[in-house]
């Protein structure tokens, strides 16, 4: 991650830019902040691509399809403006390591735990198959499915950058040559990609076989660190894969995925049926030593840098020609086994003296240190987002359970804080960074800084009745009072939602959270949140809410603002409130 230079824009659309994360084939990627304080990744398209009509058409198609991918195993695209002079695309920022950095033992390739154990690989396979099924179901082919595009969280994998390679393909179809760009990564390309043929969902399944081989063995099925891109491509098209060392039961599946004939490869759904779920429900899906590394890595990524001093709105400027891009620095940061791969832009953030206010809606950490966040983690507390393990998918047989070693992450480094005898203990649950606030794509003014939680009043109570508009956009089925809660070792902690009528931007939700603490001082938090966007007319359309703000915090240190959430009415009449990271809470009307 780098500081913004004088040539970098300070804002794109409604997003304030904080730092430069890296650069890829599509353009530069920035760390950004939405109007509500949520942390996002903002990708600004290259100048030479923006002038290509064929590319713009492909980008529109990619963004429209990517927005239909809403599963719990993918990093969502939350905003975009494909018609701007310089187009941009916004996705969630995930404070977690990639599969590449977790497994790699190559110098410069990451902390390098090495190959994952058999059970972890099986759970990984199931989560990735779910992600591919969601991507393919939206009419997309990923085309660049590789370890650096897979985040590893304590709840499972998250896949990013689906559809970007297709958008780049439209540029090359239009005759534009991208300096240093390669559509796909050599070690994980399918034979049809290598030959330049049309690709289908089966191409991603081939890449899945290569990814699982890498996760289980630490090497590629068609070559290792001594392989050039050309040698890898030659082996992919002509030789059989080396699947030795794969866990029992996975070898045959991986070999089927790596079939040279696309028609002989299983579909993502067939992979799911063959992998099954984890062997023991209730256990972490990663071994303890990996969880420790994951915790430390995630905490390093969780702090966000301070916004640039100049708050003056600036339009996104075209990027300089490729010759001026810092490609040498990017290439030296990558392991040799992935020649010409795009920059892995989720790198540790610059060290901050104080953690920034979080954007996830959990209690705040003490300002002195994160050290205590790794041990003796208490149960979840006033979580403005969700407290139950998420129902990943109705098709899922995998249950990825939250780990015992919990980590302080989220867009601003939020941690759970238990108020005991006056001294808080800290712990947290990993989550993907929160999504954008739902502001329109063409907004030009920069957002204000995130709300200062420490100044939230604790002397007055928030009314549990959001002010409705005369005519609102909230479907009547959501309106009313909903009750839920979570049972912890300290007792039952109730949650109460009040939803009223209003239009997009109006405050329509109040959440009250109270916590028990074994007879000691507990907590009382009250949050409010606006309607993020007008829902579609579909009968089962979900409701997008937030991000939320803290109105009452007793004590102040126990409550923090929350990320945007989605409300859905379930078939049994209950209401499910879920974050983009998969955390959820169920409420009953009452």
Number of helices: 12
User: What Rg do the Cα atoms give?
Assistant: 23 Å
Low-confidence stretches: 171-182, 311-381, 385-470
Molecular shape? globular
Oligomer: single chain
The strand count comes to: 19
Protein name: Serine/threonine protein kinase
Keywords: ATP-binding, Kinase, Membrane, Nucleotide-binding, Serine/threonine-protein kinase, Transferase, Transmembrane, Transmembrane helix
GO molecular function, one term: protein serine/threonine kinase activity
InterPro entries: Kinase-like_dom_sf, Prot_kinase_dom, Ser/Thr_kinase_AS
What does this structure look like?
This protein has 590 residues and is α+β, with helices and mostly antiparallel strands. It is 20% helix and 18% strand. The protein contains 12 helices and 19 strands. It has a 9-stranded antiparallel beta sheet, with no helix packed on it. Strands 1-2-3-4-6-5 form a 6-stranded antiparallel beta sheet. Helix 2 (53-66) runs antiparallel to helix 5 (164-173) and helix 4 packs antiparallel against helix 7. The longest helix has 20 residues, at 118-137. 54% of the residues are buried. Mean pLDDT is 70; it is low at 171-182, 311-381 and 385-470. It comes from Streptomyces montanisoli. It holds the Pfam family Pkinase.
In short:
The protein is an alpha+beta fold.
Keywords:
six-stranded antiparallel sheet, 12 helices, 20% helix, single chain, nine-stranded antiparallel sheet, 590 residues, alpha+beta
What is the topology?
Elements: E1 11-12, E2 15-23, E3 27-33, E4 39-45, H1 47-50, H2 53-66, E5 77-81, E6 88-92, H3 99-103, H4 118-137, E7 150-153, E8 156-159, H5 164-173, H6 191-194, H7 201-217, H8 229-238, H9 251-257, H10 268-275, H11 288-302, H12 327-332, E9 416-418, E10 425-427, E11 480-488, E12 491-499, E13 507-515, E14 523-530, E15 543-545, E16 549-554, E17 565-569, E18 575-579, E19 584-589
Antiparallel strand pairs: 1-2, 2-3, 3-4, 4-6, 5-6, 7-8, 9-10, 11-12, 11-19, 12-13, 13-14, 14-16, 15-17, 17-18, 18-19
Helix pairs in contact: 2-5, 4-7, 4-10, 7-9
């Amino acid at each position: 991650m780098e500081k913004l230079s004088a040539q970098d824009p300070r804002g794109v659309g409604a997003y304030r830019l904080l730092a430069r994360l890296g650069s890829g084939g599509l353009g530069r990627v920035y760390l950004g902040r939405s109007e509500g304080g949520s942390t996002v990744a903002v990708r600004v398209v290259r100048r030479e691509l923006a002038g290509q009509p064929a590319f713009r058409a492909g980008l529109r198609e990619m963004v429209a399809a990517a927005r239909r991918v809403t599963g719990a195993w993918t990093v969502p695209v939350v905003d975009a403006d494909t018609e701007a002079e310089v187009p941009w695309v916004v996705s969630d920022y995930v404070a977690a390591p990639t599969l590449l950095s977790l497994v790699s033992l190559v110098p410069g390739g990451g902390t390098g735990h090495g190959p994952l154990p058999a059970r972890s690989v099986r759970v990984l396979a199931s989560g990735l198959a779910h992600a591919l099924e969601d991507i393919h179901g939206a009419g997309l082919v990923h085309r660049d499915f590789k370890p650096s595009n897979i985040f590893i969280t304590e709840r499972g994998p998250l896949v990013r950058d689906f559809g970007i390679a297709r958008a780049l393909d439209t540029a090359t179809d239009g005759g534009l040559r991208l300096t240093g760009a390669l559509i796909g990564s050599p070690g994980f390309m399918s034979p049809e990609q290598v030959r330049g043929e049309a690709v289908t969902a089966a191409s991603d399944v081939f890449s899945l076989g290569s990814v699982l081989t890498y996760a289980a063995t630490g090497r590629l099925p068609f070559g290792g660190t001594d392989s050039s891109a050309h040698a890898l491509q030659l082996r992919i098209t002509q030789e059989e894969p080396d699947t030795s060392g794969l866990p029992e039961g996975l070898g045959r599946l991986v070999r089927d995925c790596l079939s040279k004939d696309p028609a002989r490869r299983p579909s993502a759904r067939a992979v799911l049926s063959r992998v099954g779920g984890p062997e023991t429900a209730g256990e972490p899906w990663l071994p303890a030593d990996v969880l420790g590394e994951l915790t430390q890595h995630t905490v390093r990524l969780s702090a966000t840098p301070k916004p640039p001093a100049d708050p003056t709105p600036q339009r996104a400027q075209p990027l300089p020609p490729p010759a001026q891009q810092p490609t040498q620095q990017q290439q030296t940061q990558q392991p040799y086994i992935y020649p010409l791969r795009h920059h892995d832009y989720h790198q540790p953030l610059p060290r901050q003296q104080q953690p920034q206010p979080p954007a996830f809606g959990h209690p705040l950490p003490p300002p002195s240190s994160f050290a205590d966040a790794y041990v003796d983690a208490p149960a979840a507390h006033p979580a403005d987002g969700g407290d139950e393990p998420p129902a990943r998918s109705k098709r899922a047989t995998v249950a990825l359970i939250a780990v015992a070693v919990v980590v302080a992450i989220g867009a601003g480094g939020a941690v759970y804080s238990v108020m005991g005898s006056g001294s808080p203990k800290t712990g947290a649950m990993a989550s993907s960074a929160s999504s954008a606030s739902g502001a329109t794509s063409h907004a030009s003014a920069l957002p204000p800084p995130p709300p200062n939680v420490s100044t939230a009043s604790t002397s007055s109570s928030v009314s549990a009745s959001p002010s409705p508009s005369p005519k609102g956009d909230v479907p009547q089925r959501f309106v009313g009072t909903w009750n839920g809660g979570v049972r912890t070792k300290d007792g039952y902690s109730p949650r109460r939602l009040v939803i009223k009528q209003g239009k997009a931007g109006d405050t329509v939700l109040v959440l009250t959270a109270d916590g028990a603490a074994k007879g000691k001082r507990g907590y009382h938090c009250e949050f409010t949140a606006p309607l993020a966007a007008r829902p579609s007319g579909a009968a089962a359309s979900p409701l997008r809410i937030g991000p939320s703000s803290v109105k009452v915090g007793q004590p102040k240190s126990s409550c923090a603002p929350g990320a945007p959430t989605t409300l859905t009415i379930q078939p049994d009449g209950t209401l499910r409130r879920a974050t983009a990271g998969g955390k959820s809470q169920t409420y009953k009307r009452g």
